[in-house]
Amino acid sequence: MKIILTADVSNLGESGDIVEVKDGYARNYLLPKGLAIVGTKGAQKQIETIRRVQENRRVRNLEHAHELKQQLQNLGGVTLSAKVSAQGKLFGSITPGDVVAAVRKAGGPNLDKRSVSLRGHIKSLGKHVVDVQLHPDVSANVAVQVTKEQ
């Protein structure tokens, strides 16, 4: 079935793309969730409108991403406290949600936890570098200091 995406769908395409998918996937998932519309002649005319809006939004988002990157760089380091065993090991590990909460607590911007990429599991005290993907073209590094909870 030929459909037109109205939103970005991972592993499929961006909004405005015309893609061919299996009938069941389109009928049971994409169409009911509003992620796509059936690829008719009239709908193809709407593609141009969708692409224009998307291009304007992308430029606006790129500028916003650069502002967020600057805020994260001005923030310096972020301190995060965690429970530690008697041997000095963390109970569990630090999650992207923990990093987002620590950045917000330190006065930084409100980030999406899906944009935070940990370089492996953080299971020890000390300084760790975390990647934040703000935009497909803009990423930032945040230094996270993991300390013992008092």
Sequence of strands across the biggest β-sheet: 4-7-6-5
Oligomer classification? single chain
Query: What's the total count of β strands?
Result: 7
Structural class computed from helices and strand pairing: alpha+beta
Protein name: Large ribosomal subunit protein bL9
Pfam families: Ribosomal_L9_C, Ribosomal_L9_N
Function: Binds to the 23S rRNA.
Keywords: Ribonucleoprotein, Ribosomal protein, RNA-binding, rRNA-binding
Secondary-structure map:
Blueprint: E1 2-5, E2 18-20, H1 23-30, E3 36-38, H2 41-75, E4 77-82, H3 96-105, E5 116-118, E6 126-135, E7 138-148
Protein name: Large ribosomal subunit protein bL9
Function: Binds to the 23S rRNA.
Family: Belongs to the bacterial ribosomal protein bL9 family.
Question: How would you characterize this protein structure?
Answer:
This is Large ribosomal subunit protein bL9. Binds to the 23S rRNA. The protein is of the alpha+beta class and 150 residues long. The protein is 35% helix and 27% strand. The protein contains three helices and seven strands, in the order ββαβαβαβββ. It has helices at 23-30, 41-75, 96-105; strands spanning 2-5, 18-20, 36-38, 77-82, 116-118, 126-135, 138-148. The strands form two sheets. A four-stranded mixed beta sheet has the order 4-7-6-5. A hairpin with a 7-residue loop joins strand 5 (116-118) and strand 6 (126-135). It starts with a strand and ends with a strand.
